[in-house]
Each structure stands twice: as structure tokens, then as C-alpha cells.
Amino acid sequence: MTHFRIREAAALVGVSNDTVRRWVTDGHLESSTDASGRQVVSGRSLAARAIALAPSVDDDAVVRRSARNRFTGIVTAIEISGLIAQVELQCGPNRVVSLMTSEAAVDLNLEVGSRATAVVKATMVIIETEQR
């Protein structure tokens, strides 16, 4: 089974080390010690906690959509060049970059510092993992 040190677990779900330790104390995460004697949490319990804390999809939306991958964050950069605009968002620890028409960027009133949501519908998603 996969285990993560407190620091790694905190980085994966975007919380502080103290929050992960509190979750262990409160029984929300399974923990043990690794070969070095450091406290680790199980990957399975961390995944369950992440799902439980994830914000639900906006059920009040007027429009129904098939895309389930939504990343809400803050616009950190906008570069408009001719007909194309490149918009960067920082969504928690994730950087999302979108290419769109300049007209769309203007119509959305995008500016650095504004809140935006990237909705992703991909036919191919590549998953990477570390070699063990």
C-alpha cells in the first residue's frame, strides 16, 4: 500500500502539515511509521479524505455539462497577440493554461487577479507516476 509522509500528504491535498496531523489525531487518516520511524499516512485514506473535502459541482447551474473537470482559481497572466489570447490560472497548486480567441478573453472581462474556472473535457489524459 502507498504511504506518504506528513509533508507529502499536505502538499498533495493543499493543506498545512498541522492540518494533516490533526486529521490523523481526529481519526480521519490512517497512520503508521515508516522504516525511518517517521509518521506516514495511507494513500487510500488520504484519497478518501480528498474526495470528502472536494467541492461539489455547482448544482444550481442553469446549464448542464458533460465536462466534470473544473478548476477554479485566480488569473495570473493574460497575453493577447493578434487573434489569440493565452490565459494562465493558478488553481491551488495547479497551473492551468488556456488558449482562446482574443475576442473571448475580452468578452469574459478577464484580467490578472480575477477569479475564473477552467472547464476541461479531454479525449486523452496522460497519467504519470514515479518508478518504484
UniProtKB/TrEMBL annotation:
Superkingdom to which the source organism belongs: Bacteria
GO BP terms in the entry: molybdate ion transport
Short name of one Pfam family: TOBE
Keyword Cytoplasm part of the UniProt annotation: no
Alphabetized Gene3D superfamilies for the sequence: 1.10.1660.10, 2.40.50.100
Molecular function via GO: DNA binding
Residue stretches making up the Mop domain: 64-129
Organism: Leucobacter viscericola
UniProt KW NADP keyword: no
Protein keywords: Molybdenum
Protein name per UniProt: TOBE domain-containing protein
